[in-house]
Amino acid sequence: MKHFKEISVAHSPDADDIFMYMAVKFGWVGSEWLRFSNTALDIQTLNDEALKGTYDATAISFGLYPLIKDDYALLRTAVSFGNGYGPKLVKKKGKSLKKNFKVALSGKHTTNALLFRIAYPEARIVYKNFLEIENAVLTDEVDAGVLIHESILDFSDQLCVEREIWDIWCDLAGDMPLPLGGMALRRSLPLTDAIETERVLTEAVRVATAHKPFLSYMLMERNLIRVDKEKLKTYLSLYANESSVTMNETAINSLNKLYELGYKHKFYPEPLDINDFFIPTEYNKIRFS
Fold first, then answer.
1. Which family does it belong to (predicted)?
2. Number of separate domains in the chain
3. Which residue, 136, 151, 198, 238, could crosslink 147 as a Cys pair with Cβ 3.0–4.6 Å?
């Protein structure tokens, strides 16, 4: 009986992460010597577990990566960027926000938290599971909250958008895609396993994107998605598309800009160039040529 090495993969329960991984789960994409197990966790928990080094491969907020760079390489695939859209700061209609307003964010190390803290340094922040933020605003537990994932498409008509995180990003960085989330891979894995893991996950995103209607139907049929068919189609067009398959130069430049801003505002201890932290896939070409 052939022995397979298991790679533990953690991702969020939101539609784009599930969509980008399911080609592996359904057996459409695989490896000759690796097997993959998956766990779904909210983004704050994913970031916390990445800090502990819990999973081999894990979805993370891009804002977290400089804090785990010594233990995890960054994958080029399964990435989500905003381009004219992104998380939304919402409040109750008619409410005025003071400089020190109380706000609910989805996690300390999320990209939206980094940009929010730069834009609103006097705000009083509480961190909540992203599914609890809308209700926290509606019940006046907080003055405002930043909605992420599918929540940006469907929230109470008692709420209005105070500011788009995209607009904060553009004010700070100019006209570049907004880096939101990606995948990181444990550095202690043998390099051949790391390269193979990235290959499989990249192919999974490619296959999912190429068969979006069929895979979306399968996810809806299995009740794996929290939104209806039309909202799922809209959401995937935003965050799980051709640009999710592999980062291009524009995406890499955006990510470097994010880390430049984080260093400038003292969220990170040192500057970094993300090109130095990818898996060296050229190793296989050299080794097996």
1. Belongs to the MqnA/MqnD family. MqnD subfamily.
2. 2
3. 151
Query: Given this model, what pLDDT does residue 211 score?
Result: 83
Distance in angstroms (rounded) separating the CA atoms of residues 286 and 284? 5
Answer yes or no: do 279 and 184 share one domain.
Answer: yes
Residue type present at position 213? P
Element (H, E) at 58: strand 57-61
What pLDDT, on the 0 to 100 scale, is given for residue 285? 61
pLDDT value for 152: 85
Please identify which residue in the block is written with the tokens 């109380």. Answer: 102
> Domain range for residue 132?
88-173
Q: How confident is the model at residue 237 (pLDDT cuts 50, 70, 90)?
A: confident
**DSSP bridge pairs for 186:** 72
The reply to whether 76 and 101 lie within a common domain is no
**35 and 158 co-located in one domain:** no
- pLDDT of residue 224 exceeding 80: no
Q: Which of 173, 204, 239 is the last residue of a domain?
A: 173
Three-state DSSP at 121 gives coil
Clarify whether residues 95 and 229 are in a common domain.
Answer: no
Give 172-223 pLDDT, tens digit per residue: 999 999 999 999 999 999 999 999 999 999 999 999 888 888 777 777 777 7
* DSSP bridge partners of 126: 104
| Cα-based distances in Å from 1 to 4, 70, 83, 197 | 10, 36, 48, 22
Decide which of 167 and 42 is more confident.
167
Q: How confident is the model at residue 1 (pLDDT cuts 50, 70, 90)?
A: low
Are 130 and 146 a contacting pair, CB within 8 Å?
no
Tell me, yes or no, if 149 is annotated catalytic. yes
Question: Considering 138, 173, 208, which residue would you say is the last residue of a domain?
Answer: 173
Same domain assignment for residues 142 and 103: yes
Contact 46/54 with Cβ under 8 angstroms? no
